[in-house]
Amino acid sequence: MTITEILFYAFSAVLVVAALGVITARNPVHAALFLVFAFFNSAIIWLLLEAEFLAIVLVLVYVGAVMVLFLFVVMMLDVDVAKMREGFTRYAPLGIIIAVLVVVEIGSVVWVKQLEGISEAAVTVTPDGYSNTRALGELLYTKYLYPFELAAVLLLLAIVAAIVLTMRQRTGLKAQDVAAQVSVRARDRIRIVKMDAEKEVATPPESQSPGSQP
Amino acid sequence: MSEPVIANLNLAAASAEIFMVSAICVILLVDVFLSERSRWVTYALSLLALVGVACVTVSNGVDGRVSAFDGSFVADPLGDLLKLFAYGTVAVAFMYSHDYLRRRGLFKGEYFILGLTALLGIMVMISAGSLITVYLGVELLSLSLYAMVAFDRDSGVAAESAMKYFVLGAIASGTLLYGFSIVYGLTGTLQLDELAVAVREVGADKLGLIFGLAFIIAGVAFKFGAVPFHMWVPDVYHGAPTPVTLFIGTAPKIASYILAIRVLAEGLDAMVATWQSMLIALAVLSMIIGNVVAIAQTNLKRMLAYSTISHVGFILLGILAGTAEGYRASLFYTLAYVIMAIGSFGMILLLSRAGFEADRIDDFRGLNRKSPWFAAMMMMLMFSTAGVPPFVGFWAKIAVLGAIVDVGLVWLAAVAVVLSVVAAFYYLRVVKVMYFDEPTDSVAVEGGGTVRALLTLNGLAVLVLGIFPGALIDLCARALP
């Protein structure tokens, strides 16, 4: 057993455990965190397969963006776990059918490969120094430059559209103006008034205001 | 390791698109710094950008087929014509909308920016050289349109129709993409000209390809708004603010036409027999449902939506002929339809006032008493849309019918003729209401000078192009030799 194989089996085992955790965890937040863990382990398996670009994208996109969004939704919405589990027995047969289908699909692929016999020659070994990140980058910035740039414009459009649909000026809103808060000076808030020192006054209170008496 | 090179970059061919993207970015930045009062600058800049991009397109006009970006981009005379026409349509749409938006407090920079990105999507589709580019163009256009429909934040109807449009549109885009991926899986190429060769090698009657084609047709039909993928059209036309309806009803039709031409006629031309039969079903259903249901409408925007569906049927007739003559006829029909539709919606905008939407047929009652000139313009537009000679709509119908008779589909031509007679009923009803009914109110036609002048030009264009159709026919013939 080579070190790669040991690593593969170790991370695969953790992956399976994490995946089981996703469906067995009672707390939805725990389930989401288990899913993050599962993504990390699959990313490592991809790294072992020398698909480093996919591995990094998996971590960046799924862990960094998608799962954070998931966690937000799970934490913000009031998820009633008991209610969610109500339909379990009703939907269990469907789930079992899908699970069996997936097992059959994977099994048939393995079986067909076994029939043909997986030979070492069929697996093309990448030359030394080959980087699939570079290969992908070269394709994206040459052959697919135009679609790549268009996708960028599409993202810009999505930002504009999202802002148009969500941002609106409402009247009577008590919002903070950060710029005004930062640029405030002491003289805007405090007025220093020069006045004479207070003296002990012996006269009665009526005579204190000088203009009132003729 | 060798340095990567871009095969056949040819940036100059795509200069119109590059100009457009730069213009959008500049306008987007300028708009941020404008006060509410000087918002007209965005409007002026948008029109200026359209003039600029038209100059760029004209100065880079091509005689033959020129490709760029390693085949992802294609420029040809057809593309140049359609692009110039799309610029004009968007410019006219902006000018029609200006007064209406201003009166309703909807005069925001984003309307123009989204309009320009939609135009960019149309341009990308027009110059698409590969399936990926086609798809990105479709998405650029659709995303802009979804946001434009929901643009009036205070209108519940608009939000509802935007939601419907978005959900159905997303499914349609998915369908289109699924079809593309099946075709790619079987042929191994995304580039349209290579695809045409690869389909012949694989065999046009391969079941998998037909399966993929069915999904592509469903996606294209949705973008066209052809029956049975038309459900969104009446709701979106009715629910969207009228300037947006005007926009959706016109420029994207050019995009739908080119989508069908690029994907079906260029990429999958070997499968013409298969998609012809699919399109016949779509065309016949569109003409029947569109025309019959339009009769029952009391809302003009809804009526025009169903009328659009029936016109889409006619545009599909030319495409399904599968001949150069048919494509030309469809091109002519599309251009003529856009001119007529933009005028009809412009009329609703002209008659609308602050707090009053002239979108019911009853709102046109006795228009002749109030403004004989614009009643005459509307009459010409309606006659033309119905296909009455000597207006341009008549020649468009003749061209399309001629194309399908030439390929031996006489029964289809007969069906189309019968249904255009049915259609005449609801167009003439609008004319009857304008000329023979008493006006319900005595408010004079408001509308700014620009809108009045444009509508006059628009109405006269329908008449002049109808009397001298040669110019437009020549243009189409030069674009599609």
How does this model look, in words?
Chain A is mostly helical and 214 residues long. Chain A is built from nine helices and no strands. Chain A has helices at 3-24, 28-48, 52-76, 81-84, 88-116, 132-141, 145-166, 178-182, 186-189. In chain A, helix 1 packs antiparallel against helix 2 and helix 2 (28-48) runs antiparallel to helix 3. The longest helix of chain A is centred in the middle third of the chain and has 29 residues, at 88-116. The model of chain A has no long low-confidence stretch (mean pLDDT 84). Chain B is an all-alpha fold and 481 residues long. Chain B has a two-stranded antiparallel sheet. In chain B, helix 5 runs antiparallel to helix 10 (242-267), helix 7 crosses helix 10 and helix 10 (242-267) packs parallel to helix 12. The model of chain B has no long low-confidence stretch (mean pLDDT 91). Classes of the chains: A mainly alpha (214), B mainly alpha (481). Chain A binds chain B through residues 129, 134, 138, 141-147, 150-151, 153-154, 156-158, 160-161, 163-165, 168, and chain B through 1, 4-7, 9, 14, 21, 25, 28, 68-70, 72-73, 108, 110, 113-114, 117, 120, 124, 130, 132-133, 136-137, 139-140, 143-144, 146-147, 150-151, 153.
Order of helices and strands of chain A: HHHHHHHHH
Low-confidence parts of chain B, pLDDT < 50 over ≥5 residues?
none
Q: What topology, given as strand order, has the largest sheet of chain B?
A: 1-2
Compute the separation of the termini of chain A in Å: 112 Å
Tell me the Rg of chain A in angstroms.
Answer: 34 Å
Q: Give the uncertain stretches of chain A in residue-range form.
A: none
- What composes the largest sheet of chain A? none
Identify the most extensive interface between protein chains. A-B, 23 and 36 residues
